[in-house]
TrEMBL record:
A family per Pfam: Fasciclin
One GO cellular component term noted in the UniProt record for this chain: extracellular region
Biased composition (Low complexity): 31-48, 442-452
UniProt key word Transmembrane helix: no
Species in which this protein is naturally found: Lolium multiflorum (Italian ryegrass)
Domain of life of the organism encoding this protein: Eukaryota
Family to which this protein belongs: Belongs to the fasciclin-like AGP family.
Name of this protein: FAS1 domain-containing protein
Function: May be a cell surface adhesion protein.
First-listed, main subcellular location of the protein, grouped into a coarse class: secreted
Length: 487
């Protein structure tokens, strides 16, 4: 029973193959369907595409012909589906430029413009400008005779293409001559070979506009963002200077930074001409902070605390030099209300960031590399700020209250030096001041708070502790009554 079943299946496969071979031959023998609205409406879109695109279609002939450059452009422009739909609706005429016209004769700049992804619409309009939604043979009388007026034909791009003939009866398409008329003839279309590429006016205007815009509004190249190896954060570039705004530093200051780069000498008696204009220099220093960017909080404090700015100007006028360790805006924003609530806290904080020496990044880094740890005097006597070398830079302070040299040499004029740091510095606080003398930790909550105890009171407090310990030692030795300080 298995043999008859196998024979029936084999007979069915043979009949199916024979039917599949006969149907294409019958379709090839049938005449082309008319492109009437009724015929188009009776058949669906899928049926129209199937009838228009087959192995004998003009699109397949274009892809397999000698016009390979044009076929590649059609594929890059994603126009295969649009051309299939056009072929399915009726016959088409394609004007194909020769490969040499697209390889060597085409302007390289214009070719690069067409191949840019953002100019895909321009490339599509250019290629559709070479396709007519009708069938035009060379002998069909579509081209006018020599000397006759040209005729306009609508292309798939929506623009008109002029057909004419010259004195030698050579067929012209626009400004290009037809070198191979009727190069490929298929039931659904015809391909004519032309000598050059046809460029519609809209694509030419897009190219001219893009080239003019690139020549006029050239954008300077920007490098990759820089990451600070210490903080692992992006370095903020300087804000752009508006058009017409004054430069960050006056040109005169850049050309003539001052009478002398060395620290200015103190003025002698009865020599008023030796005084420097310290107030103007402090004003320039504050203006530089504002224009540099990132130090607006410090500049605002200096402007509001007129007594502090006046004191700095007076010191510079008398011949002193200053190095300001300037915390940036992020560091100033981390200050708490408790740290700024006590009277005189802003002044004390800024006085601790002012060193009565002229130091630059190079001089401070060389010092910490040579001596390891350097202690600089500050205007908040007798407190000192400690500097050491860390991670290839200068680190100020201790532990969590430390700060790195973040923006070196913001302002240097020989008398005032501004070095940007990334944290606010506070002088170290003794354990007795933190615990209030009773061992309680309630007073140690604001660890970086500006101490309210002055330098004189702290020295007396240390002296009293030492005398108490000495008197106890003398009591053990039986000599305590000899010292009046132990009575």
């Amino acid at each position: 029973m298995g043999a008859p079943l196998y024979g029936a299946v084999l007979l069915f496969l043979v009949l199916s193959a024979a039917t599949a071979e006969v149907v294409p031959e019958q379709q090839q023998k049938q005449p082309a369907l008319p492109s009437s609205p009724s015929a188009a409406g009776g058949a669906g879109n899928s049926n129209s595409s199937t009838v228009g695109v087959n192995s004998n279609s003009v699109l397949v002939a274009l892809l397999d012909s000698h016009y390979t450059e044009l076929a590649e452009l059609v594929e890059k422009a994603l126009l295969l589906q649009s051309l299939e739909d056009a072929v399915g609706r009726g016959n088409v005429t394609i004007f194909a430029p020769r490969n040499e016209a697209l390889e060597r004769d085409l302007d390289p700049e214009f070719r690069a413009f067409l191949l840019e992804p953002r100019n895909l619409r321009s490339l599509q309009r250019l290629l559709l400008f070479h396709v007519l939604p009708s069938r035009l043979h060379s002998a069909s009388g579509a081209w006018p005779a020599a000397g006759a007026a040209s005729t306009a034909r609508m292309t798939l791009s929506g623009e008109h293409l002029e057909l004419s003939a010259d004195a030698d009866s050579t067929m012209l398409v626009g400004a290009a001559a037809v070198t191979k008329p009727d190069a490929v003839v298929r039931p659904d279309g015809v391909i004519h070979g032309i000598e050059r590429l046809l460029v519609p006016r809209s694509v030419q205007e897009d190219f001219n506009r893009r080239r003019s815009l690139a020549a006029i509004s050239a954008v300077l190249p920007t490098g990759a963002p820089e990451v600070d190896p210490r903080t692992h954060r992006l370095k903020k570039p300087a804000p752009p200077v508006p058009v017409g705004a004054p430069p960050v530093l006056p040109v005169w200051d850049a050309m003539a930074p001052g009478p002398s780069i060395a620290p200015a000498p103190a003025p002698g008696p009865n020599s008023g001409k030796a005084h420097f204009d310290g107030h103007s220099q402090v004003k320039d220093f504050i203006q530089t902070l504002v224009l540099y960017g990132g130090y607006n909080e410090l500049a605002d404090i200096l402007v509001n605390l007129t007594s502090l700015a006046t004191e700095m100007g007076r010191l510079v006028s008398e011949g002193y030099v200053l190095t300001v360790l300037a915390p940036n805006d992020e560091a100033m924003a981390r200050l708490t209300t408790d740290q700024l609530s006590e009277p005189g806290s802003p002044e004390n904080i800024l006085y601790y960031h002012m060193v009565p020496e002229y130091q630059t990044e190079e001089s401070m880094y060389n010092a910490v590399r040579r001596f390891g740890t350097v202690r600089y005097d500050t205007l908040r006597l007798p407190q000192k700020v400690t500097a050491r070398e860390a991670d290839g830079s200068v680190k100020f302070g201790h532990g969590e209250g430390s700060a790195y040299l973040f923006d070196p040499d913001i302002y240097t004029d020989g008398r005032i030096s501004v070095q940007g740091i990334d944290a606010v510095l506070f002088p170290p606080v003794d354990d007795t001041a933190k615990t209030g003398g009773g061992g309680s930790s309630a007073g140690a909550a604001p660890a970086r708070k500006a101490p309210a105890v002055t330098g004189t009171a702290k020295s007396k407090l240390r002296r009293g502790r030492l005398l108490e310990g000495a008197c106890q030692m003398m009591g053990f030795l039986g000599r305590r009554s000899r010292f009046t300080s132990c009575q």
